[in-house]
Structure formats: C-alpha cells, structure tokens
# Entry
Amino acid sequence: MLGAAVTALAGHAVPAVSAVAPLRRRLWPDLSGTGRPDHVALTFDDGPDRRSTPRMLRALAEADVRATFFLLGAMLDHDHALGREIVAAGHEVAVHGWAHRNLLGRSPWGTYTDIARAHDLVSRVTGTEPRWYRPPYGVLTGAALVACRRLGLRPRLWTAWGRDWTAEATPASVYREVTGDLTGGGTVLLHDADGTGAPGAWQATLGALPLLVAWARERGLTVGPLGSHRAGSPPAPPPGRRWRPPARPRAFPDRGRSRAGTG
Ligand SMILES: [Zn+2]
# Structure
C-alpha cells in the first residue's frame, strides 16, 4: 500500500494526497469517510473470499455489528452466493473495482469499464444498488472520479487502517494500528480476504474485531456501515435484515453522456 503512495508521489498530486490518510482527513473529510462523531464506520476490502469472509460474517454477527464490504468484481464473480450472504446478514456492499490494480496505470476508459463492470455485478448479484467506491490502494484519479459520478457512486477512503495485510500482523498489532488513529466519526479499513496481502493475514483481522468493537463501545461510539455514518442517516438494520439503501436520485442517469466538465 505504501508503495502505491510513493509511486503516486512521482508526479500526480491528487492521488498522492488521497493516499496519505492524515493529509486527506484534513483536506477532504467526506472522501476520507469522516462521519458523525458518535459513530465509527467499519469497512472491509478485497473480498469476498469463501475461505475467510464467512468467518468475518460470523464474528460480526457475534459482535452484533453491521459493516460495509468493498467487493472486487473478480472475486464476487467466483462466488455469487457469498455476495448474497453478506447482504442477507444485514451488511452493506460497495465497489472496490473489478481487478485490484493501481488506477495510475489505467486509461480513462479502462478505469470506467473496471468500475462499471464491478458496479453492475454487485447490483445484479446482491439486488442492492452500491453507493460507495474505494479505489485499490486508496489511489484515486480524475478518471475514477468521472466514472463514480456517472455510476452514482461516492468515493470513500478511510481515516484509520489496521495494516492487516502484512505477514507480521497479529490481532494485537491490528488493534494498536486502528486505535492509534481512530476517533469518533472515523472510518476503519480492514480486509476480509488475503488476495492482495500475506496468506492468512485475515486471521489477525478476525482476532482484532471483537477488541475493536469493545474499544469503540467503551467510548460510547456506535460501530456500523458507511450508510449509517452521516448525521441524519438511518441506523443500521437489525441482524439478519437485508441492507436497503435509501432511495436517491441518480446524478448521472445517462451513462452515454459526454464527460463534460470534469478532469
Ligand atoms: Zn484493496
């Protein structure tokens, strides 16, 4: 992940800044996922994966917590049923793109088709309209912003992460990393699959989950999905209820329209 941020620093100011959490929090609180101060948004990237995601779903059910899963189209395409299980358990599904590739190496059209293909699969398979997009490695480009507007997606990154993709990660290290940066209104990035990290790294995440939920609750913070993160947003549904995003007008209903007015 840091490698991506360093690459980005080579000459692309916006993606570089977007990948550095403290700077981003200050400059673009919305993009960082800053929400109401009594709430923490819990998000998982890189799944779904039959080897690990069901374990995360069970731990979340035991903790009585709903979260947002940023799905990779390529992973979901292997296991449509698992995408439906995530939604049936009351969680929110969102778009992490089709392939886990740094967007800096992609053309505007390649970027659009990657995000649109994942968006369409997530919608079709889970029966819910995804609202959020998170780019691989947190590197957001102008082309990705254009694609998001056309697809009705809002980009959301994070304010705290667990460094839970490394071979050295343990439940204690993930807990330390997250709580070192997390405050009320923050968005936590974790991973429910190890496809882009060290094999089995998700086990550290799994062990850290109940500790993180307890940490938040001791501070009077509610843990939930991004859909419940803003002031005035509805609370997360009770366990076992499908996530239903509230109806909203689509900003760009016509996908064939020209990309006027954006970079
Ligand atoms: Zn990722």
About this structure: The pocket of zinc ion is lined by residues 45-46, 96, 100, 136, 196 (CB under 6 Å). The two ends are 25 Å apart (CA to CA).
